[in-house]
Design brief:
Chain lengths: 839, 227
Amino acid sequence: MIAGVILSTAMLTAVFVFASSLQGFLVRSTEASEGDWYMRADQVSQTKIATMEADGRLSELDAAEDIGYARVNSANSDKPYLFVTGFGKEMYNTAAVNIVEGRAARTSGEIVIPEHLFENGRIHYRIGQKITLEVGNRKAVRKYTSYAGNAVARGSLLGQSIEYAHAKEKLTGTKKKTYRVVGICERLSVEDYNAPGYTAITVPDNNRNARYTVFVKTYDPGDIYSFTSDLVPSSVNYTYNDILLMYLGASGGIDEMTTLLVAVILLILLIAAGSLLLLYNAFSISFADKTGLFGMLSAYGATKKQIRTCVLFEASVIGAAGIPPGILGGIAGIYTVIKIVGKKFAAIFTAGSNITAFNMQISWGFVAAGAGLAFLMLVISAYLPAHMRYRVSVKEAMRRNAIPQTVKAKRLKTSKLTQKLFGFEGVLASKNFKRDRKRYRAAIISLFLSLVLFISANGMIRYLSDGIDQQYGTNIDYDIDYMSDVTHAGYEKLKDAKDVTAGAYYNAYTMKVKKSLADFSSTDRKKIESSSFPVSKGKAELYAGLIVMPDAQYAKLAQKNGIAAADDSGFIAARKVYGYSDKGTESFTADISSARSEQMTLKGDNGRQFTVKVVYGSKLPMGSDAYNTLVGIYTSRSNAENLLGSRYIKNAKSNGSMRPAAFFRSSDPAVTYSDMEKICRAEGISSYAIVNMQGQYETVRNVISMIKLLSYGFITLISLIAAANVFSTIATNMLLRRREFAMLQAVGMGPKSFKKMINLECIFYGARALLYGLPVSLLLTYLMYRFIGGTYSILFVIPWGAIAISIVSLGVVVMLTIWYSMHKVRKTGMLDLLKEGSF
Amino acid sequence: MEILEVKNLCKSYGSGESEVKALDDVSFTVQKGEFVAIIGPSGSGKSTLLHMIGGMDEPTSGYVYVDGMNLFDRSEEELAVYRRRQVGFVYQFFNLIPVLNVRENIALPILMDGREPDERLIDEILKNLGMKDREFNFPSQLSGGQQQRVSIGRALINSPMMVLADEPTGNLDSKNSQEIVELLKRSNKRYNQTLIVITHDENIALQADRIMSIDDGRLTSDEVVRR
């Protein structure tokens, strides 16, 4: 029984501690990405700051001086300014500034430029460059309503939260200022997406008349709303740090925190219910032993209350013995889990380069809640059976005539079939099973739960990883790609990035090609016919990609494919094409030809047709995986120029039917990736299209392994409770029926029949759990398939493995229990029981 | 005709200093159709003796011959068959199977034997027991006396050659007690069954053919009361 208390306390504590650690992690990672503030107000005067500082609710106030706006030659017409702000040292933390290169500004002559000034605004400043800005204030030239619905008065000064109003505003009071760029930072998260200026950071000027952007924290996060309505004038624009407030539990509404809370509550309910059953069973045994005792006590005049006190005392003693080790065990368990998964978890859920550590965070209030809940369970489960015992009449208890067996004839009816199939032992087993239906129900429910959870989680994980494998391809032959407007010169520079081991650069022209269905093998023909490729007049229309590479590179490819110079037509085609079924739910590969070479007519832009002789090759160059849904035709730059002509090439470039792409292999994709970003910044190459495929694949893999770990961990816990429940239910029942067993022996039941009866009873029991559990888990697995299968093309598979594992482990648990309880039953000397007539 | 021979029967628990002798060199014989009462104080070894005769317990040494065959040469399975065909047990606590009704409880040894119970025979037994109107009741719906009648019915269903009763009336009032003893005696006479009864009740002991006293595991007296 103490083991049961330890187990359930440990699990409750674990859930509570995990929840509080998770919350702590979310708060810290949000602070790191969004900034450590609750409310931000724009354009606040120094006097107003002073009144805010005087308020008792305020715990921290940081202010950034709005130095002004400077018009820059931005490519984004809605974002024409550089917004120069003055940050003190503290502000860097408060606003979560992440400097990716260089350092913070130290003097009023230095400035930190945001990354997106280039990525979005196409303005390229290098570190060390001196820039001269005309810095002034934005002023509304007429009355209008801002995008967010705020009335803007004529002549009012405009801050970052009011979008660029084009003709309705102008820059006034400009002063010439010269700065040296000392650092580059990530786009500030406090900069709204419709902010009119790219935020650049210098140090405060300490201008007495300046306006400030104020970042406020209150002692109680919940107070921030009243603080704001009391102290922030209605004319001032303010924003709450909603995500942080949400994780702190200070904002209402349905959000992630609520989801987390619901999940935690569900978990706790599940565990509480499981442990209630477990402890209830344990107390049932203990009090069944004491039926006589309670009868005796009340016969000698003990009141109900005294007996209750006696029960509670027993519960308290057990609680005192079981709860503290349970708490320690739970904490130790979660500590280990977090140690193992914390890093991965943090890497997945923290955006950007600053990884917040996922540490164990113990909130003693939560631990106390867990322990309190465990004790409550204990008292309830002690009280219920004791109460039922008490209801047994005093006389009956004194006669020590066992538990009242209220047996209903109708319920105990057994079919003739049972008799035929399993013999008399089967009938007895089935009657026994039916008699204790209520008692068995609890254990069957918990078995059912762990069965369903295990099988469907198994299915989910499988579908997810299948889907991910398919999406990312387990064997793509490159680590990093850049499939956007990268020039050959840009590619050459990127190729110099750290740890790059190989690179490839292509210009890919998208065209169409018609293939006669007769060219396909019969199985592939069927796939094509039921695919998303249009088929008409016996021909399938496929997309083709004319993939152009430098001449030298092409020569190497031809050599690799063993194509002799005499056979080489200058065009090497991939034989396999990747396609999707009609509904897009399944994918396939098909061989487009079995010939060694053939004539192909490609249809390009404006209906231009090109006829080429292609030679099929099996060894394709790096990056070909990116083109596997096209009929890939690889050629050299000179061949392409001859075929297409310079006008076609020029056109294709401008209308987008030609897309350049670069592929890289790297010994350390993460290092290469960040080095490439740096090169992009230095060279003025846009870096947003660089994709670390390997990194993405790993991230997704990490997510899956996290899901795996967490769900299997949870399933293990639930199964542990279920196993303990089954164990205590069967064991209780066997022990309570010791005398019955002895009697059956006395009237001549042999050991074989006896074993048969008990085994059948347990089989009925396990069969019941399977009967309900299997269909439900299959249904859930199917739903999971529908859900995940919608995004990826995967096949529905019945998780036979998981089913087999659950049946086998069910069998093992049940068998072990029987073995244990029979051992116990034998040890107690059944003969004496027969004589004594008590339990 | 001699049906039962108990020879040098010993049963001890523990060893060395803590050895407890439940039975100490007990020997006697019983004739077919004899009604034997065994008396003695609590813990004297009466029940142990009865269980050995019923093949429920094994001796430390000694023999029990039933119908000339040693019980303890037999396997567990064979002993089970012996118990259900040749022996009927009656206990102070009736030990009925709670999930079976009166009829089924009585038919239990036959069912266990894998045979179809003879419904007429059960009806007759029910009539003899005065339980005809309760045949479909479950044990929990019966009084103590009624439960004991059912357990006697169960002991008699196979017309065993030996009925072993361990304080069959210990839990009943005097009226019920006498009725139970009458039932046992009637069967003893009618089927020429051997009846061995452990009792504390002098009235019952005096109705037996022979009274044995056991004290501290030893047979202290064995006298024939009537012949």
